[in-house]
Amino acid sequence: MAGEGVFTTTVVGSWPRPSWLIAELRRKNRGEITYEQFSEVADEAVLLAVKYQEDAGVEVLSDGEQRRDNFYSFVADKLEGIKLMTVAEVMDFVKDKQRYEELLRRLDVPAFAIKSPVAVATIRKKRPIALDELKFLKKHTKSRIKIPLPGPYMLTRASWIDPVSREAYWDREDLAKEYVKLLREEIKALAEAGADFIQLDEPTLTEVVYGGESSQTFMCAALFSKTDPTEELKFATELVNKVVQGISGVRIGVHVCRGNWSRAEGSLLSGDYKPLIPYFQEMKIDQLVLEFATQRAGELKVFEGVSGIKELGLGVVNPRTDEVEPVEQIIAKTKEAVKYFDPDKIYLNPDCGFGTFAESPVNKPKIAYEKLVSMVRAAEQLRKEYGG
Ligand SMILES: [Zn+2]
């Protein structure tokens, strides 16, 4: 893979969308304009997101997910057979509504803002999942490009809902097969068209471990599938491996965080990556893109004596705060990571996106930009020390 260095800087994906884009997004969701009409407006927002990242000096950039209403529900624009349902609509299928509502309040989930893609019929591709995003970026930047994709476990978990999905897909495994096929096709097409980095987003893996009985609603997913966490993690690992098996010529990462829907840190999950490490070791991927700026993610020490993990995408800035992390703080965090990974195996990135959900971005472009600048400066200083 070309252009390797030490402490390569990148992003996780999303960028806060301009208000005029959100207005158009709403029009698209109401059916007043087509995806293509919306996408033309989004082109301008993508250029802005790219400009911010390039000005900050980020080396591997994204399109800020400007065409997506969030990192996974956007598949409803791309796939037939998927219907977007709000948390409130999904709630119609929940038995204990009162408990569920209390939970949503406690977790600070914007119940009417977050929509989940639910499989309601046989899924067929209407449009490429992300190839349009890549093609536009290729025309407008010479930088290396990361394309985030919703991971197969996350997609399956969010979109198989009993009984609405059952007619088309008898069980989750059945639906998972469909997503594996679609994601493989997409990744191959993206690699061929020159994507440098594909990132599979699997944020709900931490929920499997730390969500417990009481927060089965993390991102509206898995309302009905309270199964053994070990089985879930095995299932997720298997799906990731089926998606990436035999694909080469592009860096493939998996991103795992603890949710990014709220600035109320107390409402997001806590717990280190330790219980996930055996599964990470099994994943046939190039890089783990993890959050470490937030204290809720625990210590880097979990990697002590751990083999089989090729690269770490190290989260060094918290997307949900106004304080810009000082360069020295980022350097110190990175030096911790150097104990467990070689400098050329460490990427620097924010913990997550800055605008995961279109309607509830966790930061403003100005602050997001300053955080990227701080990260890039830290990388420059680190390179002086470690070479490359
Ligand atoms: Zn994340």
From TrEMBL:
UniProt cross-references to Gene3D superfamilies, sorted A to Z: 3.20.20.210
Cleavable signal peptide: none
Pfam families, per database record: Meth_synt_2 (PF01717)
Ranges of residues in domain Cobalamin-independent methionine synthase MetE C-terminal/archaeal: 7-380
Annotated InterPro entries: Met_Synth_C/arc, UROD/MetE-like_sf
TM annotation in the entry: none
GO MF term list: 5-methyltetrahydropteroyltriglutamate-homocysteine S-methyltransferase activity; zinc ion binding
Biological process terms in GO annotation: methionine biosynthetic process
Protein name: Vitamin-B12 independent methionine synthase
